[in-house]
Specification:
The chain is of the alpha/beta class. The chain has a single domain, classed as Rossmann fold. Helices cover 43% and strands 18% of the residues. The chain contains seven helices and six strands, in the order βαβααβαββαβαα. The chain has a six-stranded parallel sheet, with helices on both faces. Strand 1, helix 1 and strand 2 form a beta-alpha-beta unit. The protein is globular, with a radius of gyration of 16 Å. It starts with a strand and ends with a helix. The C terminus is likely disordered.
């Protein structure tokens, strides 16, 4: 599992999420897209790519390299790799999966979509979680409609009353009910799409 941080960088919240995946039997790698770089310049480049909706935006190449390193580990099955991302990281997950078929399932949280939205026709299965009281809720609805149109397996849910960063239990917007439900949905979805063949059958 590749874990992609939001604009706050690789903080304790993202490390906690990565550990949660490890505790559930996943080989999990949290990517630091700011390491060794000027953070302000990186953010400017990443935000420009997000606003343009480019699927080949700055940062995608770093994620592809990270996936390659993860896939090369002897304990990892390269045919069963997914990604999860939050806000900026969720947008990265969607854009990246449009151009890299090594990803078998993704979980964007409060993420922006690529432009045009039809770029998602190339996506792997998606489990997405969006807060109702946030600009990203419209992106979640648009993604849901596009995935239906392209017959891509998905589970998109918009949480009433939730706000941006509702999954961050260290932040003021934390919403326990939405966070717990979205985690349960995400793990169940990944279980269906990333588990070994025999276990996938059981998960259904």
């Amino acid at each position: 599992m590749v874990v992609i941080h939001e604009a706050y960088g690789l903080n304790e919240n993202i490390k906690d999420i990565t550990r949660r995946f490890a505790e559930n039997g996943y080989a999990a790698l949290a990517v630091d897209l700011f390491t060794g770089r000027n953070r302000a310049l990186c953010m400017a480049r990443y935000m420009a790519g997000m606003l343009r909706g480019s699927v080949e935006r700055a940062g995608i190449s770093d994620l592809k390299i990270a996936l390659g390193k993860l896939a090369a580990m002897p304990e990892v099955d390269p045919e069963r790799i997914g990604a999860i991302g939050f806000c900026m990281g969720g947008g990265f997950a969607i854009a990246w999966a449009c151009t890299d078929d090594r990803l078998k399932a993704i979980a964007p949280f409060y993420a922006a979509n690529p432009k045009p939205i039809d770029a998602v026709s190339r996506l792997c299965p998606v489990v997405g979680s969006y807060p109702e009281k946030d600009f990203s809720s419209s992106a979640g609805r648009a993604l849901d409609q596009a995935l239906v149109r392209y017959k891509i397996d998905h589970d998109i849910k918009i949480y009433p009353g939730a706000r941006h960063s509702f999954f961050n239990d260290r932040g003021r917007a934390f919403n326990k009910e939405a966070a717990e439900d979205s985690w349960t949905r995400t793990m169940a979805f990944f279980g269906r799409h990333l588990a070994p063949v025999g276990e996938k059958t059981k998960a259904k």
